[in-house]
Structure formats: C-alpha cells, structure tokens
Amino acid sequence: MNAKIATCAALTLLATACTNTEPSAPPPELQPSLRAYVLDEVPSDVDNRTFVDFGGKVHLIGYKIEPSGIVRPGQSVKMTLYWRSVAPLTKGWRLFTHLTSPGGSRLENFDKFGPLREPNALGDQSLPPDQWQLGKVYVDEQNLTLPGNITDPVVTLTVGIWRGNARLDILSGRSDGTRRAIIANIPTGVVPPKPVAKKEPSKP
C-alpha cells in the first residue's frame, strides 16, 4: 500500500512539474511585412560572425555595424543582429538594446527600434523571441541615433533578452557581466576636457 501511495505521489509531482514548465503556444502567423526578416540560414555577407549563447535558448550568431568608424553625438548608426532560435522560450521574453558608458551605466534604451521590435496594436514587440520558430534565423535591424549630450569618447552597444526583472544568462560569448552581450564599442569623436591644474597658493 505504501509503495502505491509513493508512486501516486511521484506521478502527481511529475505532472505538476510538467505544468510549471509553461510550454510555449504555437507561434502566431507571421505578418507579411516581417517575412523578409526570417531566414533559414545566416547570409554569407555578414561582416562579423560571433557566438553568444543566451540560456541555451537563443544564439546571437552574427552582426553588422554601419558605419564602422566614428559616430558623433546626434548621428545614427545601423546595427543588424542575426539571432537563431534553438529552444522554446516561455511567454514574455523580449529583446533589448542598451547604449552604455565605459563604466557600464545605461545612456539610452533602444528596445523598441527596428522591424522585429516595433510596437504592435497591443504595445508589444512585433516579433519577440518567444514567438520564434526553432532553427530559424531572425534579422534584427536597428537604426539608432546617439544622444546629443554624450560626453564619453567611446560608448558601447549591448543587447540581451529580458522578461520582467530577469535576463537570460549568457552561457558563452562576450558580455559585460550583467547579462548583456557586448556588440561594439563606438568611438564618438568626443574629446574629454583636460583637467584644470590647481594653482598653488602664492607664498607671502
């Protein structure tokens, strides 16, 4: 009798565990305007191949930055990211892009820029990673304008995947230690002011 009870209890726990995994619903039908951003493979002309593993769920496998040189405050830079979906994500996971200072402080949030991220009728990203099909490559284009008040000679573009107060862990690849993948350091052409030398008090 005790063995039967134990077996039933184990099956109940297993059923509960399976329920708590929140399996993703089938992805909605893709909008025609977004079909060009969903590929079977990475294009051969990707400037920079990379590999960043976000929680074993999504891989960042390439990127482009245009222009490749100085981008001054108030000017724009185009960043194209190539993501591959490798495992299902539960509902609510979204892409983010942060512009950060050399010390890691966030200067600007670009979460809603680009075809995959433009707000839909519900105010959500148009094609977030929780709706991606396994094995497909997603082309994430963003045209980003640097704030005009930047005072740092170099700023950094970082990206990640978030839900609420959580971010997917970066299991491999270049990151800043806060679950943000480092994409590029952008020279701004800003020359920091020289420190003013302190005047010594005149001797009597």
List its traits.
mainly beta, five-stranded antiparallel sheet, 1 helix, 9% helix, 34% strand, elongated
Short overview:
By secondary structure, the protein is mainly β.
Account of the 3D structure:
The chain is mainly beta. Helices cover 9% and strands 34% of the residues. It has one helix and eleven strands; from the N terminus they run H-E-E-E-E-E-E-E-E-E-E-E. It has one helix at residues 2-20; strands spanning 38-39, 48-54, 58-66, 76-85, 94-100, 106-109, 137-145, 154-163, 166-167, 170-172, 181-187. The strands form two sheets. A six-stranded antiparallel beta sheet has the order 1-7-4-3-2-10, with no helix packed on it. Strands 5, 6, 8, 9 and 11 form a five-stranded antiparallel beta sheet that branches. Strand 8 and strand 9 (166-167) form a beta hairpin. The termini are far apart. Residues 1-24 have low confidence and may be disordered.
